[in-house]
Design goal:
Elements: H1 19-30, H2 43-52, H3 58-71, H4 75-79, H5 83-90, H6 97-112, H7 121-125, H8 132-143, H9 152-163, H10 174-183, H11 188-204, H12 223-226
Helix pairs in contact: 1-11, 2-3, 2-8, 5-6, 9-11
Length: about 230
């Protein structure tokens, strides 16, 4: 994920009333049934999914993730293999350096964390190949921690619904991070669900090129729709 810069940005508008509940209720009905969302999925399974999903769509990740988890269900299983095997098993997911970094992280987890993915956010950040987004995502989705997750889908929903912009900035800004933090529900469990729900809304409905506004649970409160869906500002 790109590092935030500090260029001045207009202050965000307050979140529409009922935003959290509307989006999470929609998620309860519309969420895709993905194996890494299953309560029985291990933190390692969540971590593998997060590495694979970087710049790769779910439909391509699913078969590779299943094959990896069958072959290497624990970090120690992957750590015992060669890096070449990890890259070969990565197949056509692209960006094979992710396989090398995941292998390195598996070695680190095996040697220094007793073979278990660490739950603490700062320990996740210290793992090879784990940046700010991935550490937050693993902490939230694997351990139910209250962290602010900010990916492209989430940034786009925030930009449209709250600030009225068609698309977020090319790079993550400090203002976007502040907005994401301000939008986090106070309740920890709802905060975890909120992260999942906004990400799914951006992936399925509030898409970059052809948003399905008629299916959006917060269309009536969306600042971008209210403004007439203006074109992106370069």
């Amino acid at each position: 994920m790109s590092s935030p810069h500090t260029a001045p940005t207009a202050a965000a508008e307050p979140a529409p009333p009922g935003l959290h509940r509307a989006v999470t209720d929609w998620f309860d009905d519309a969420a895709r049934d993905l194996p890494w969302r299953d309560p029985s999925c291990s933190p390692w399974g969540v971590m593998v999914s997060e590495f694979m999903l970087q710049q790769t769509p779910v439909v391509r990740v699913l078969p590779v993730w299943r094959a990896w988890m069958q072959r290497w269900p624990r970090p120690a299983d992957l750590a015992a293999e060669s890096t070449g095997e990890a890259v070969r098993a990565w197949g056509r997911l692209g960006y094979p350096r992710r396989a090398l970094r995941l292998h390195a992280a598996a070695v680190e987890i095996t040697e220094h964390h007793g073979g278990r993915v660490p739950a603490a956010h700062e320990l996740l950040l210290a793992l090879p190949g784990v940046g700010a987004y991935t550490a937050a995502a693993i902490a939230v989705f694997a351990f139910g921690d209250r962290q602010t997750v900010v990916d492209t889908n989430i940034r786009r929903v925030h930009a449209r619904v709250v600030t009225g912009r068609a698309l977020p900035s090319r790079s993550l800004t400090a203002a976007e991070l502040r907005l994401a933090e301000e939008l986090m529900p106070a309740d920890d469990a709802l905060a975890v669900r909120w992260n999942q729900a906004v990400m799914e809304l951006g992936a399925l409905v509030c898409t970059a090129r052809s948003p399905r506004c008629e299916q959006c649970p917060v269309r009536d409160a969306c600042a971008w729709v209210a403004a007439g869906r203006p074109e992106p500002v370069e």
